[in-house]
Specification:
There is one protein chain. By secondary structure, this protein is α/β, with parallel strands linked by helices. The protein has one domain: Rossmann fold (3-Layer(aba) Sandwich). It has 8 helices and 7 strands; from the N terminus they run βαβαβαβαβαβαααβ. Strands 3-2-1-4-5-6-7 form a 7-stranded parallel sheet, sandwiched between helices. Helix 1 links the parallel strand 1 and strand 2. The radius of gyration is 17 Å and the shape is globular.
């Protein structure tokens, strides 16, 4: 499905990003694995192949260097999975702090914008490419969980995705977003460990009655990057076990 394609993954050191490295490599992709944590990124590369690269996606110079690195290694960038992001503090709008807002927006929205800008500039020179941005079910609905900054950023990712998809639809560049529901990542286990919610309660939130395995999200992203999805652009695909259909 991705045979011979060069693809970069941000947030590749853990969670959905690490699962994407496994899945994309299994589909034949050549990978540049990007994470702010060099140690975890190196582990992903050791497990699944690809070149590790340390970058903070909220820093313009890091993002420029990231795209230069993949082009230096593989001549071209065919696909990008802009997956890096952070969770937000549990704050209502009235309680929210500027520090939390800036942290969440820098990583989850500005980081996606910086990555897309650099990726698209290169893809225009090679006649096209495909981009998948990680949003969330929190980008589709309000959630009501006192995560206003996170919800706003993830809604912004979908808007940015749709705008870019329309701008470059005639130039061979497809841009889509993926909207995971609850996924069994490190963040999931941390929340359960606090005792604030049980695994049974989390499962009950999904009509399918379980959280996702990270590889299920990665497989959906792989399909959107592949030529098999050549007529799909500007979409926000919910991979959420039916969560937002309730």
């Amino acid at each position: 499905m991705l045979d011979g394609k060069s693809v970069l993954i941000t947030g590749a050191g853990s969670g959905i990003g690490r699962a994407a490295a496994e899945v994309f490599a299994g589909h034949g992709a050549r990978l540049l694995l990007v994470d702010i944590n060099g140690d975890t990124c190196k582990v992903t590369a050791e497990l699944f192949g690809g070149l590790p690269f340390v970058a903070d996606v909220s820093k313009e110079e890091d993002v420029t260097a990231m795209v230069e690195a993949v082009v230096d290694a593989y001549i071209r960038l065919d696909g990008a999975f802009n997956n890096a992001g952070v969770d937000g503090a549990f704050e209502s709008v009235a309680e929210s702090t500027r520090a939390n807002w800036d942290r969440v927006m820098d990583a989850n929205l500005m980081g996606v914008w910086l990555c897309m800008r650099a990726e698209i500039r290169h893809m225009l020179t090679i006649g096209g490419g495909a981009i998948v941005n990680t949003s969330s079910t929190a980008g589709l609905v309000g959630m009501g969980l006192r995560l206003s900054a996170y919800v706003a950023a993830k809604h912004g990712v979908i808007g940015l995705t749709k705008a870019a998809a329309l701008e470059y639809a005639t130039q061979g560049i497809r841009v889509n977003a993926i909207c995971p529901g609850t996924v069994k990542t490190g963040m999931y286990h941390q929340v359960v460990a606090t005792g604030a919610v049980t695994e049974a309660q989390i499962a009950a939130m999904q009509p399918i009655n379980r959280p996702a395995d990270p590889r299920e999200i990665a497989e959906a992203a792989a399909w959107m990057l592949a030529d098999q999805a050549s007529f799909v652009t500007g979409q926000a695909l919910a991979v959420d076990g039916g969560l937002v259909s309730q």
